[in-house]
Amino acid sequence: MIRLALTVNGVAREAEVAGHITLLEFLRETLHLTGAKEGCGVGECGTCLVLVDGVAVNSCLMLAAAAQGSAVETIEGLGGEALDRLQEAFLEAGAVQCGFCTPGMVLAATALLRANPHPTRAEAEAALAGVLCRCGTYPRVLGAVAAMSGEEAS
Q: Is pTM beyond 0.85 here?
């Protein structure tokens, strides 16, 4: 067992975890934060995406112990009780269908917009490429990112 100390959504957390537990398992099973989903389990779909120290990572591939001392942000940490501006932009753009990929898409877009408030369409496409959407909402997601950056969706 490993003593894990990290910050999740602005709250200091400590727990004993087995060395083989992924960050996704820790978030879902220990902290009951279920926004990140297990889709493929091999880092290909992005449904488990969270931010670790501001960087988008597939939490199914990261051991919880590797997050020691880090700041982890999940979809539950955005906006608090209300939706944040990007989540509102997703709703306004109709970028939410079944919702399975939405947390990963929102967090990938959040990381992008924090690093680059005015990304080009190509930069937005590259940032979101790691999150698969079976409903095909990519144009609407790109529209939401464009709305947040003050650019025209094209």
A: yes
CA distances from 125 to 80, 105, 108, 109, 150 (A): 27, 11, 10, 10, 16
Query: For 118-139, b where at least 16 C-beta lie within 10 A, e where not — what string?
Result: ebeeeebeebbebbbbeeebbe
Q: Classify residue 18: in a domain, yes or no.
A: yes
Structural domain includes residue 154: no
- Amino acid at site 136: G
- The total number of structural domains in the chain stands at 2
Q: Beta partners for 106?
A: none
Domain that holds residue 66: 2-77
pLDDT digits (tens, 9 = 90+) for 61-118: 999 999 999 999 999 999 878 899 999 999 999 999 898 999 999 999 999 999 999 9
The answer to whether residue 135 sits within a structural domain is: yes
Q: Are 68 and 93 in a shared domain?
A: no
